[in-house]
Amino acid sequence: MPNAKQVILKHMGHSGDLIWGQYEAHTHMVLRYFDECVVDTSKFRHDPINFEPDKSLNKIAKWYYPAVLVLSILK
């Protein structure tokens, strides 16, 4: 691929984050590259990665343990 370009975006993962996280920006970059051979990353916005889960395993266990206990007693 003699005309290939490598694009490195800060705080982005692999293709899943790149394509689906900012779909419009990705589409703009790809189409502009194929149409004009220009790598345009201007539409991407800085979106830092958040490693905090929506629900922790402790909270899930506290919510579902009573239900599992009741269901096991009713059987």
Summarize it.
The chain is built from 3 helices and no strands. The chain is mostly helical and 75 residues long.
Envelope shape: rod-shaped
Ends distance: 64 Å
Radius of gyration: 22 Å
Strand content: under 5%
- Count of DSSP-assigned helices: 3
Let me know the number of strands: 0
What integer is the average pLDDT? 85
Structural class: mainly alpha
How helix-rich are the residues, as a percent range?
40-55%
Number of domains: 1
* Uncertain segments: none
Report on this structure.
It is a single chain. With 75 residues, this protein is mostly helical. The chain has one domain (15-74). The protein has helices spanning 15-21, 23-36, 57-74. The mean pLDDT is 85.
Would you spell out the secondary-structure blueprint of this structure?
Elements: H1 15-21, H2 23-36, H3 57-74
Keywords:
3 helices; about 80 residues; rod-shaped; mainly alpha; about 50% helix
